[in-house]
Amino acid sequence: MAAGTYRYLFADLVTNATLCELPLKGVTFESRLNEVGSLTGHISISDPQVAKLQPWTQTPGGRTALYVDRGGRIVWGGIVVTRRYTQAGAAGGGLRPGLEFGASEFAWYFSKRIITADAVFSAAEQMTIPTSLINTAQAVRNGNIGVNVPSFPASGVTRTQTWHGYERKPVLQAIQDMAQLDRGFDWQIQVDYGAGGAGAGIPGKQLALGYPRLGNPFTTSGWMFEFPGNIVDYSWSEDSSLQAVTAYIQGSGTGTLMVASSNSVTGLLDAGYPQLDQVFQAKDQTDPSLIAARAVATAKAYSSPVILLTLMVRADLDPVLGSYAVGDDANIRITSPQWPAVAPSVGYDVFWRIIGIRVQPQDDGAPERVWLTLGAIPS
Hints:
By secondary structure, the chain is mainly beta.
């Protein structure tokens, strides 16, 4: 199968039994590090070959898994969340009557699972907390969607945290909160054939946790993207609206009984910045040590303007799509009016981390397009 050939496989979310394969069009899918990526696409039901597959009855939202196969490798997996059938306008041609799909990566499922009984962790190794939460969520009737949860090396970081059942905290939010603490971890639910012991030729899914990070440093990855070169286009945006010299975190409670902390990056003042304050809320946090850890992490994260560097890259030039993954570091080299070359060097030559990959497969003659969202490499 050619590397750029795509297949869209639908399966039962609980049993993982294959339901159908549909020729989706207009597809865009994205994977995000420590977040939930999404997919959109549509299909024409006026095609008799498609209609006999019964795409409406075979793909109910909330209980159908969707896997994207590119050249024999699963490159995206998630759950059908939204569908929209359109009947009107069929006489006008195009893709109607048709069916539009919206899907979210498998981590979305755990936003629909609630911590209903007290979850108490006292000086617990932090890597055991998300594994415990997911195992507990999957231990109830029809709660197991097949996310394999392996054991992970200890990070050496311990956390004390209690989520009370009456708080009705979503499992996904609890994991995200822990990951965002100072000295936290990266997480992702990864998919591929055979992943998590699914068996040869069977799409599988597995939790991945990394401390201090997931992905490969540049010394291992060697990924390089250049403009001009394998970068087709790029955009650079900066946002200082949340920039802070001092970050204040407000936890549970009110008034003088509020659990709160702050942290300052005084190096900004030394560099000539004015004092900038920003308040962040964490009202479900009761432990002072976690509030303090969040203050440190938040101050680091917002000490500089939020810079969003997005690259449009060629899928068929080295490094080809599928060789790199979210979490990997890459060397970005740019020569442009923004970054003019100063001989003998290029204008811009900096290492970034890939935190998002968005793909538009080749469709009706349009080229396959890939966008990379880049973020700072964790220190």
